Structure formats: C-alpha cells, structure tokens
Amino acid sequence: PPSQLAMAVQPSINAPAAFLLLLVLASAGLVESLSVVGRVRLKLGFGKALREDAVARYFEGVTTKNRELIASCFPAEGASIRDVCGLSQDEKTATRDQLADRCMEFVAAHPDCVVHFHHPPTALGGKGNRWVFAHWYETGTWSGESLGITPQNTPLSVEGQTRFLVNDDLKIERIVVTRTFSDWEKMT
Q1: Backbone angles phi, psi at 160, to 5 degrees
Q2: DSSP labels for 3-42?
Q3: What secondary structure letter does DSSP report for 179?
Q4: Is the CB of residue 63 less than 8 Å from the CB of residue 30?
Q5: CB 3.0 to 4.6 Å from 78: which of 19, 95, 165, 182, for a disulfide?
Q6: Are 3 and 37 within 8 A, CB to CB?
Q7: Directed axis angle between helix 2-9 and helix 36-43, to 10°?
C-alpha cells in the first residue's frame, strides 16, 4: 500500500511528512486509483477536479451513448433525483441501471444527441462541498423510435442546469435538475 511505500522510503519519517510524500507521489501519477491519498484530498476539500471529472464522465456517456459508462457514474444502490420542472417535483430514488436505461431510451429517440455546455461541470471546492453544477444543452433530432413512440423528426432543443452531489467514491448520489423537455419526453 502507498502508506507502506512512504514508510519504506524513510523508516523514521513522521506522519505529516508521509502524507506529504503520498501527495507528491499521487500528483506525479505514481499512486493510482482512488487511494487513501485521494480520499484524504476529497475530505480536505481538494477534490474539485475529481468531482468535476465524475460528472463529465456522465455527460460523456450520454454523448457517446455508452450505457456502462453512464451506469458507472452512480453508486450500486442508485441515486436520488429531483426534477424541479417535472410533473412531480418529489425526489425519487432510482437504481443505477434504471438511470442508465432511461438515458439510453432518450438517446435511442435522439440518436444524434450531443451535449454542449454553457458552463461545464464546475465544483466550488472547499471542505465539505461535494456539489458539482453544470449548465448544459442538447442538440439533435427526434429521429429514433423509443418506448414504442414513433419519431416525429423534430429538432432536439433542450437545456438545463443540474446540481450533482458527488460522494467520496466519486459517484453521483443525488441529482437536482431544472430543465426543458424534448417532444419525445412530453409523450412518455
């Protein structure tokens, strides 16, 4: 483990120095994965870029129509979602498979869907702040059949602002979205 590596370099090294060494090794790419160092950085509020990347992966999954990538952005137990503009503004919990499947239904209806940003995923940073914000819009055409609904070949023009609560495992555990709806969504 990285902590043993730090101690092996200098057997009499003290804890703060070991932590500093781990940070240096991690920033140099010598310690990979979300290790103890990564978790400590997140807890101390230095995980801004890591949290932003977690949300960017979700949007990449939508644009590339990659169900596995989308599902991997959520914890195994799923996430809660609140659609402020939806018919029901109640917060609901969905499994990661349900979340990924719904995204795939959407991109099946809009096969040329591309996500763009007015403001890309942005975390405020700071200790205890786990929220990432994005102001996005999607373009494309409703040209695919999904959920048995015949495509109308109308332009896709939706946009929204979303807050994502990203946990210390870099998984999205809560979504709060304010957005417009596609013609397809209005029929589902």
Answers
A1: -165, 175
A2: HHHHHHH-TT--HHHHHHHHHHHHHTT-S-SS-HHHHHHH
A3: E
A4: no
A5: 95
A6: no
A7: 100
The amino acid at residue 63 is T
CA distance 129 to 163: 12
Strand 114-123 vs strand 92-94: parallel, antiparallel, or unpaired? unpaired
Tokens of 71: 């599902």
Residue 85 in contact with residue 179, Cβ under 8 Å? yes
C-beta neighbour count of 32 within 10 angstroms: 10
Mean pLDDT of 131-153: 94
Rounded CA gap, 121 and 164, in Å? 9
**N residues, the chain:** 188
Burial of 153 (0-12, 13-18, 19+ CB in 10 A): exposed
Instruction: Calculate mean pLDDT across residues 81-95.
Output: 86
- Say if strands 172-179 and 79-83 run parallel, antiparallel, or are unpaired: parallel
* Banded pLDDT at 85 (limits 50, 70, 90): confident
**Within a 10 A sphere around the Cβ of 178, how many other Cβ atoms?**
15
Reading the block at residue 29, the tokens are 């790419």
Alpha helices in 65-134 (DSSP H): 67-72, 96-109
Instruction: Take residue 176 and report the two structure tokens written for it.
Output: 């709060």
The helix (run of H) or strand (run of E) holding residue 121 is strand 114-123
